[in-house]
């Protein structure tokens, strides 16, 4: 089955208080985006990558590709006004009828090849694979009367890569945009599909703040001592 990783890296870095989008910030002397790309290429030799980048930073993305990987497996497109529109832009470059498509946050740079392969195998069987982890904190829901406790054992925290057969994902993104579309799973559900959950990884964090960047560096140092 054809394998396509659609890596969404269209953020602007506002929460980082940086003029440089977080996907281009350095982590152990390499861009955050480098690590996300490398994990997918390490997972499968026959994988194509579609990068969705801020239009004004496409040249910078191309520099990362040229500096570390080479162009043969890459396509690049500009992001849109929401995640939905950015993913839709990326999917416009998919022309295969039969493919497994991974949609991944470019700033989840600690994704492992093992999780990517698990998502692939699950999507082959059921058509979808959404990595999640259990919630370790107490959870409360706001209500009209204040708030109430939620059973955390019934709560899952969603990660990426959200993985789909192309025959599900491509037509799902042909529907009209709605504000509740926060990820690809919500789009697939609106299209009428049920999604399959798979076990994610606790270290598959999303780089959002400077503290996240420090944590990612610590995890890399632990995983790759002396690197």
What's this model, at a glance?
Helices cover 33% and strands 25% of the residues.
Layout: helices, strands, pairs:
Layout: E1 2-8, E2 26-27, E3 30-31, H1 32-43, E4 47-53, H2 58-68, E5 74-78, H3 83-91, E6 99-105, H4 113-126, E7 128-134, E8 139-143, E9 146-150, E10 156-158, E11 162-165, H5 166-172, H6 184-190, E12 197-199, H7 210-223
Helix pairs in contact: 1-4
Textual characterization of the structure:
This protein is an alpha/beta fold and 227 residues long. It has one domain: Spore Coat Polysaccharide Biosynthesis Protein SpsA, Chain A. It contains seven helices and twelve strands. The strands form three sheets. Strands 1, 4, 5, 6, 7, 10, 11 and 12 form an eight-stranded mixed sheet that branches. A two-stranded antiparallel ribbon has the order 2-3. It has a two-stranded antiparallel sheet with strand order 8-9. Helix 2 (58-68) links the parallel strand 4 (47-53) and strand 5 (74-78). Helix 1 packs across helix 4 (113-126). The radius of gyration is 17 Å and the shape is globular.
- In percent, how helical is the residue content? 25-40%
Question: Can you tell me the number of structural domains?
Answer: 1
- Provide the residue-averaged pLDDT: 94
Structural class determined from secondary elements = alpha/beta
Distance between the termini: 34 Å
What Rg, in angstroms, do the CA atoms define?
17 Å
List keywords for this structure.
alpha/beta, 7 helices, 227 residues, 33% helix, Spore Coat Polysaccharide Biosynthesis Protein SpsA, Chain A
């Amino acid at each position: 089955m054809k394998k396509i990783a659609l890596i969404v890296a269209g953020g602007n870095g506002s929460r980082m208080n940086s003029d440089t989008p977080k996907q281009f910030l350095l982590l152990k002397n390499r861009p955050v985006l480098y690590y996300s790309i490398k994990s997918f290429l390490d997972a499968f030799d026959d994988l194509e990558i579609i990068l969705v980048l801020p239009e004004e930073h496409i040249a910078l993305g191309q520099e990362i590709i040229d500096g570390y990987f080479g162009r043969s497996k890459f396509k690049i497109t500009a992001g849109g006004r929401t995640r939905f529109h950015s993913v839709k832009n990326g999917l416009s470059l998919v022309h295969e009828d039969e493919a497994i498509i991974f949609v991944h946050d470019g700033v989840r740079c600690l994704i492992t090849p093992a999780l990517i392969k698990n998502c692939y195998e699950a999507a082959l069987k059921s058509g979808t694979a959404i990595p999640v982890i259990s919630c370790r904190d107490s959870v409360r829901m706001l209500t009209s009367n204040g708030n109430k406790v939620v059973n955390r054992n019934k709560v899952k925290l969603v990660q990426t890569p959200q993985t789909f057969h192309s025959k599900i994902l491509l037509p799902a993104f042909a529907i009209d945009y709605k504000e509740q579309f926060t990820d690809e799973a919500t789009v697939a559900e609106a299209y009428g599909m049920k999604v399959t959950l798979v076990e994610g990884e606790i270290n598959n964090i999303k780089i959002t703040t400077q503290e996240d960047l420090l944590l990612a560096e610590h995890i890399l140092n632990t995983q790759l001592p002396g690197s």
